[in-house]
Amino acid sequence: QVQLVESGGGLVQAGGSLRLSCAASGRTFNTYVLGWFRQAPGKEREFVARISSNGGTTYYADSVKGRFTISRDNAKNTVYLQMHSLKPEDTAVYFCAADVPYYSGPYYSRSAYDYWGQGTQVTVSS
Prior knowledge:
By secondary structure, the protein is mostly beta strands. Helices cover 0% and strands 47% of the residues. It contains no helices and eleven strands. Strands 2, 4, 5, 6, 9, 10 and 11 form a seven-stranded mixed beta sheet that branches. The chain is globular. The N and C termini lie far apart (40 Å).
């Protein structure tokens, strides 16, 4: 059983920065693909970023490329999302998710991920 806990959300002005963290349980953390998704009010949960088990491969949604960076520290069982140049449209609840080594869908799909955190609120004011 994998448990994920996000932190680091808050209220910032447009153009500001935040760093989200997600701490995970599990003795096989270094085998998990990890992702970040977000969900704004009235909208579907959407893919933001993904990182491979060893951190060597990353993918980003077009809307955040060049502004957000996903990283992981397997020694600390933690994945991060560094966000710069935040825009009001980035306002959402941000979720981290873990994909165990069993193919269940493409990297950008919610169905690919087996465990989810409870989310952390990010609000960007104009």
